[in-house]
Amino acid sequence: MKKPLIFSILFLFCKLVGSQPIVYKIPIQRTIDLGLPPFIERIIQNAEEENADAIIFDINTFGGRVDAATQIKDAILSSNVLTVAFINRRAISAGALISLSCEKIYITGGGTIGAATAVDMKGNKGSEKVISYMREEMASTAEKRNRNTTIAKGMVDEELSFTHLVIDGDSVEVTDLEGKKEGKLITLTTELALKYKIADGEAETVDNVLTILEMDGAEIRSARVNWSENFVRFLTNPVVASLLMTFGFLGILFELQSPGWGIPGTFGSVCLALSLGASYIAKLATMTDLIIIFVGVALLLVEVVFIPGFGFAGIAGIGVLLWGLYELLLPDVPVNPEVTSMALTGLTIGIIGGIIGLVLLFRLMTKTRFWTKLTAPGIESHEKGYDISLGWENLEGTEGIASTDLRPSGWINIGEQRIFVVSEGDYISKNDQVKVLSVDGNRVVVRKLNTNS
User: pTM higher than 0.70, yes or no?
Assistant: First the structure.
């Protein structure tokens, strides 16, 4: 009789422990930037995989980037887990959009929500295109969560005015809302947010929110931004992104000018991978942006590999590539002129800084022990018994045929020998006749023969 009783107790204990609610708490503090959406998407996915009971967003922000806020909003609206906005003092601008996307909103005493119009860093109002976009984003989000769309629009556009609102099916005259007047934006206090059904309740702590949701004793899992998400935030900074793209572009270009594959090409490839990878993760890079960049790179490759000199393809490639890099710095939503100006400034700084940085980096590298060991000038000299010559000294004065274009390096054939050579600096086309001028170790210098004389 004792064993069944023990098993029953154990079963009930396991059931009680297993039924403990799981709640994720996600902080949305300070400025909302492009590093935040991947973090929130990751936590929402984790919560869904673990069948969490709720996700509480601890919000205290004056706003930030509109494109980042819309990405967060989309992730919240798509969540299968109960989403709760806990406005811990304020949810202004982009923070208001994120709050409205949650199924439940709770706000602290003395809190505020609203003032979501798009402005630049100087406080100037955005263009009508930007205002219209943000206004309808707010309205559609409020509509999805059965909240008042008129108030949501009034948080963005001060040109709207009204005298009555429909609350719970009843028409209510509005007398205590300053933002109902034309020329005034709507920002709700805690009392007004509760009165006009924008917030579902008042709470001072996350524990209060859990009590209201009847989830007392829930296991709270606090989410934190990991190092990779912080790294993405750093890489998507306009100036850093521009520098990476410039270093990548210049590194690849320098590599194409020399045979084989070396440090410039590797360095350039890493920079391009970091920039494009971070932009893709942060959803800055669209497929159109990537196509523009690849077209620019393709034109440069055509110019370097197939067309002698530097002409239309090279100029067009540089132009298309710079256009692609500029587009890469712009979000995929309507933006203020200041954002486009910041992107252009970032690109300019990146190009100038990249060139200066590469020059300084090369000068510093040539003075390091690593570079000395890598190049080993004068160490394995002929006088010390070392000789890397292939025995081509007897080729001086002989003639051959260029088997590739020499720009200025390439391959020639002398009899049955195929030799890597450099010209005096002139471009020599494939199948031109050449003469060996000098041989210094493995460096063979040739000159194009004038076949007309």
Answer: no
